[in-house]
Amino acid sequence: MIRIKELKKSFKTEEVETLALNKVNLHVEDGEFVGIMGPSGCGKSTLLNIIGMLDNPTEGSYNFAGNEVAGLKESQRTQLRKGNLGFVFQSFNLIDELTVFENVELPLIYLKENKASRREKVMKVLERMKIAHREKHFPHQLSGGQQQRVAIARAVVTNPKLILADEPTGNLDSKNGLEVMNLLTELNQEGTTIVMVTHSDHDSHFAHRVVNLFDGQIVTESHNRALEARV
Amino acid sequence: MFKNYLKIAWRNLIKNSAYSVINIGGLAIGITACLLILQYVAFETSYEDFHTNKDRVFRVKQERYNAGKLETEWAGGAFAVGNSFKEAIPEIEEFVKVVQTQDIIVDVNDETLKIDQVFFATNSFFNVFSYPLLAGDLNSVLKEPGTAAISESIAVKIFGTKEVIGKMLPISGGKDYRITGVYEDMPLNTQLKPNFLASYATFVEQVKTNSNGEQTPDDAWDWDGCLTYLMLKEGTDASAVEAKFAPIVKENESDFTKQSNSSAKYSLMPITDIHLYSNFMMEPGATGDGKTVYLLFGIAFFIIIIAWVNYINLATARAIGRAKEVGVRKTVGSNRNQLIGQFFLESALFNALALVLALGLMAILIPAFNQLSGQELSYALFSKSTFWIGLTALLLIGVFLSGAYPAIVLSRFKPVEVLKGKMANTQQGTLLRKSLVVFQFAASLFLLIGTLTVYKQIQFMRQQSLGLDIDKTLVVVPPIVTDSTYLSQMLAFKENLLKIPSIKSVAAATTIPGQPVNWNAGGIKLVSQGQELAKQYRVIGVDYDYVDQFGLKLIAGRAFSDEFGADPEAVILNRAGILQLGFNDPEEAIGKRIDFWGNQYTIIGVSENFNQESLRLPYEPLVIRLIPDVRGFFTMKLNSSDIGSTIAQVETQWNSFFPGNTYEYFFLDDHFNDQYLADQRFGKVFGFFTGLAILVACLGLFGLASFTTLQRTKEIGIRKVLGASVLGILKLLYREFAFLLMVAFLISIPVSWFTASNWLQGYAFRIDIHWSFFMLPFVVIVLIALVTVSFQSIKASLANPVKSLRAE
Ligand SMILES: Nc1ncnc2c1ncn2[C@@H]1O[C@H](COP(=O)(O)OP(=O)(O)OP(=O)(O)O)[C@@H](O)[C@H]1O
Ligand SMILES: [Mg+2]
């Protein structure tokens, strides 16, 4: 699904140029659950954003499901992203002025689905995330764990092939964090590919494979034998 | 999608209610002001617009030259113009001659009724103009001598019915008229507003009778007083027709004119231009002022722009608050165009709400506005399609102008940057925001400087000494109906008035101060000069008491006096008059004889120039001619405060001397100051809308200050923890606005100086622009801005830093 070759990303500000990613090579297959780890500032989020087509690489190639992404215009990236990708962030990033239902419904609106099918899909996923009873609430009326479940619901409502999660448990206590990890695992078991950035060793155990980044480069890759056996 | 956008727009509006109130309130005030002014402008520019043939109907304008120099401009010209031009120029389809004449008094059922606005007109009047004739035959309504058409309301007033065709109307001291037509009352937006329209044939007959058959107006090239309107054939080029005038005029030029080295030039003026662009001699009705209309239009423009700028400023200042939403929307699949659409929808919502509010405000404000501006806007406005078209246009322009920039800025946010979990600090748009604030300040300053200039000029005009004493002067309008005994009657009347103890003096004159001198005489020169040096002068006929009563200051010679036998041939000229005759030293002019249409008069005195009319107008060369039994206004200088009984006593005398005439009086200073009504009105309107503009700008400034202060809450907190004083913090917050104000001030100076001096050019006597005209508004704006900004800044600087830092 993901073929990344010799990928470079540098940020230019007025004075300095930061090389956030340096010659990264990475393959992710359909159905995999990949964790990305590394010290702060090593380029994890940058890599995830490029995979998520929110950003363009400076150099190198990125092939997503057979499409070359590097060098695409913003509008083309949006087109390719729509419905294929779901995002989960550390800070939830729900829209404060929209209700739970409306937040989850948003991706479907941009996919121009009709109202009835939107309602059906949103309710289904909300039930699955055990948050359906809160559909009319606004984000600030929910706990962090509940908010993150809504964010996951929003990420999966379009049935994406790939879910990208940037420290999804970073703002949660361990109980809520575990719940989130279980949900992601469940989704993965149903066939969704997942790439997740994390700082937590605990969370990394849910991944099949962990990629370690240091200073913009992949230094090690470790396979989680226990999980692989389970698959 | 649309619903989702609307929903979020609405929720944002409710959530940030202070921001919304500021924005919508400002926009609503802006739109209201703009609509009110636009209606006024629309009305002022709609004059003569209703004539079906307005594109090919022109009024013939006359310019009089002496020795090649333009001396006077006239709304009317020679009587022969209409028929002669039509005869010689095939492109002319029809002409209308209109002659204004004095008021008449009709006798009905033993009651007398005075009718003003009396005109003669040729039969073509109702064909060329689109004034609707309600009853009467369009082809012959004004054909016969002794016939007349009257307006609907006059018909009802006189006869109690509109069915008046064929009725005879007795005129006091004149021949009866047969009513042959009734026309709808003239609309407001037209210059000619006759109450009584007699046939031009009647006038021709009168002239014949008075001159024993020697004169016919249609051949008259030498006497003036006829308004001529021409309707050209369709598709005719007006300038080509105009070019054919000169040879005809030349051919008919009298020997007298040729010798006088004078000439008349005729040209065409579209009737739709008359109201705003002509204020010539002999206008048959009030005219407006194009400059005023366009200045007000400018104000409307400023106000609405200020309101839109508020929206732009506040929407972009708030962009940070919307950044996350944009980021999320983009991550879940929105493209940039969809976001642009969304933010346009939001500005549409704000503008539409403001518009609704504005309509309500307008409905409430119409009566007040009418009082302020002297306009007659009515609620009928709301049923006019043009009004709604204008409104829609305003909405669309508003949505676009105010929505475009915020939409572009907001939709540009990159999700990667704004979703980091921290707030991105958008320096974006700060420069634009600052420029817009500078614009608002500059516009407010400009308007304030303008208001001050207008007020100062009006004050100046009212306080400036006129060179004439018009205080405590009662004026009585001369009688209309008189007989051959008038002269002796009038002298006896004056004599009797003097017996009233509260009356100090009585005088009579053809024209009183505050009125245009309509007696214009060309061809006046020194007896010793050749005819080619003759020039035009304005003439006032006065009795012996005039000079003394009005306190004319003589700079040479003496006043009229009946102690000298030869005074009836005496004249007094003003300084401008002797200057035109060629004397620099007034003493030199004394005793010189002038030739006035074949008669000779001696200059016995020279008066200092005085303001016969509004200070808007320059001094004109005047000939004050002694006519001991002059027919004109009676003016009385009063010395008592018991005005009521004096007026009553004068009335008693009036009724015994001039029975059948209405007693009409007024006070001269009021009458004179009435000339400034339009100026004062303009001042008030200007001031009112300036106030609104500043209010709207303040609303915006308040909103902006709140946001910038809010953004700096954390910075303020840290500074305080590190030991900054409250004053230090305030300085920090004010510094930015102070700088913007200074820039605005510098920009506004040249612009307002240019506009104000341009406006003042319209006044012959005007104030000099003083530095305080700029400083005062600046101080006012600084204070207003200070108060506005302080609301938020003081709160922020006093806040406990622990709170703001914990909130991070
Ligand atoms: N927009 C940007 N402009 C300039 N430099 C950037 C930008 N975004 C990231 N960087 C730099 O790129 C490098 C990688 O950043 P990135 O956010 O990917 O780190 P990270 O591994 O996600 O760190 P953390 O674990 O703290 O989230 C850092 O050195 C960062 O300073
Ligand atoms: Mg990161």
Automatic annotation (TrEMBL), chain A:
The keyword Transport applies. One of its GO terms (cellular component) is membrane protein complex. GO terms for molecular function: ATP binding; ATP hydrolysis activity; transmembrane transporter activity. SUPFAM superfamilies: P-loop containing nucleoside triphosphate hydrolases. SMART domains: AAA. It holds the Pfam family ABC_tran. This is ABC transporter domain-containing protein.
TrEMBL record, chain B:
It is a multi-pass membrane protein. One of its GO terms (cellular component) is plasma membrane. Its main location: membrane. InterPro entries: ABC3_permease_C, MacB_PCD, Macrolide_Exporter_MacB. One of its GO terms (molecular function) is transmembrane transporter activity. Keywords: Cell membrane, Membrane, Transmembrane, Transmembrane helix. The chain crosses the membrane at residues 21-43, 293-314, 343-366, 386-410, 431-455, 685-710, 737-757, 769-791. It is found in: Cell membrane. Residues 20-245, 446-648 form the MacB-like periplasmic core domain. Residues 299-412, 688-794 form the ABC3 transporter permease C-terminal domain. This is Uncharacterized protein.
